[in-house]
Amino acid sequence: MKGLNVLTLALLCVLLTAAGQIALKQGVSGVPPWGGASPGSVLGFFARAATTPTVILGMVLYCASAALWLLVLANADLSFAFPLVSLGFVFTSVYGHFALHEPMNAARLTGTALIVAGVVFVARS
C-alpha cells in the first residue's frame, strides 16, 4: 500500500473513532445517570446505555475503525501510524466546542495546537 493510501486510511480510522466517541457521548447523555457505586445502579446504567441506538452506533463505528486500523498497522510503521491517532483528540475537541458548547480555554487550545504540530512533524518524517 502506498504512503498516501496508508495516511488516508489512518485518517479515516481517526475520523471513525472520533465519530464513535461523539455518538457515545450523545447516546449516554440521554441515559439517566447511574447515581452511585452500588453494583445494581452501575449495571442498570450500562444496560440502559447498551440499548440506546446512538450508543450502538458509536460501538459500530469503533469496530469499523478497529478493523480498518489493522490494515494501517499491516502497511505502516507503528511509530508513524500511532501518533496520527492523537488527531482524534483534535476532532472531538473541536466538535465539543462548536456543537456541544464545551469551553475551549487557552490551555486546551494550546494543547490542541501542539498535537496538530506533532502530527505534522510525524507525517512529514
What is this structure's SSE topology?
Layout: H1 3-29, H2 39-50, H3 53-75, H4 78-84, H5 87-98, H6 106-123
Can you write the helix and strand succession as a string? HHHHHH
**Class from helix and strand fractions:** mainly alpha
What would you call the shape?
A: globular
Q: Mean pLDDT, nearest integer?
A: 89
Cα radius of gyration in angstroms: 17 Å
Q: Which regions are unreliable across 5 or more consecutive residues at pLDDT < 50? A: none
Number of strands: 0
**Cα distance, first to last residue?**
17 Å
Helix content: over 70%
Q: Could you describe the largest sheet, including whether it forms a barrel?
A: none
**Total helical segments:** 6
Percent of residues in beta strands: under 5%
Number of domains: 1
Can you walk through the features of this model?
With 125 residues, the protein is mainly alpha-helical. It has one domain. Helices cover 79% and strands 0% of the residues. 17% of the residues are buried. The mean pLDDT is 89.
Labels describing this entry:
single chain, 125 residues, 0% strand, globular
Q: What would you say about this model in short?
A:
It is built from six helices and no strands. With 125 residues, it is mainly alpha-helical.
